[in-house]
Amino acid sequence: YIRPVRASDAPAVERICLLTGDAGASAAHLHSPSRQNLLGAVWAVPYVLMPYTFGFVLVDDDDDDSSVKGYVLGATDSDAFARAEEQSWWPALRERYPLQPRADEEPRTKADETYIGIIHRAPDAPHPACLALSPAHLHIDLLPEVQRQGWGRKLIGRAVQELEGMGLRAVWLGMDPRNEDAAKFYERLGFEKIEGAP
């Protein structure tokens, strides 16, 4: 079933982000053991813990940390969310993961370096063409065991219901162009490419 995300879901959300982070497949092998949290720290956990956000998780009947199987997370005001991240999310991560490796740290993989770079420059500001459509954006990830069962459609539907309740009439998302299955899924739900946006 689907319920609102809770702060205590952050570890499960981080894990799902990693296990779906390579164009829908696991990205665990791309990161060093001590940096398995990088994808979640950039693309998922802030939406669980920061203001200007919304989120829902798919859980099985036990509803414990291991029962979270997927999520839809997003920002209701993408600009305000980005400013809040810059003020109170990125500084601690930048200190934890400096651009220049420390002498005593585990060797970095190429993916580690990429994500540490993202942390230091922060993800790009929302594209003006996206913001012209809506201030709201979302992310969705489901573990393979619950894919192709209608849960993605239900999660998106719940997010849309939430946003409509706030008076918002549209939502946008970014996606890895390598993830062809995701592109087909979004098209089936009525998402379209935004003219002028990457």
Descriptive report:
The protein has a four-stranded antiparallel beta sheet with strand order 1-2-3-4, sandwiched between helices. With 198 residues, the protein is an alpha+beta fold. Helices cover 41% and strands 12% of the residues.
Concise summary:
The chain is an alpha+beta fold and 198 residues long. It is 41% helix and 12% strand. The chain has helices spanning 10-19, 38-43, 45-49, 78-88, 90-96, 110-121, 128-133, 151-165, 180-188; strands at 2-4, 53-59, 68-75, 137-142.
Q: What is the strand tally?
A: 4
Query: Quaternary status of these chains?
Result: single chain
SSE-based structural type? alpha+beta
Gyration radius from CA atoms, angstroms? 17 Å
What is the count of helical runs? 9
Main beta-sheet strand count, sense and barrel state: 4 strands, antiparallel
Outline the low-pLDDT stretches.
Answer: none
Q: Indicate the mean pLDDT.
A: 94
Query: What is the rounded distance between the termini?
Result: 34 Å
SSE succession: EHHHEEHHHHEHH
Gross morphology? globular
Strand order of the largest sheet: 1-2-3-4
Task: Bin the helical content.
Answer: 40-55%
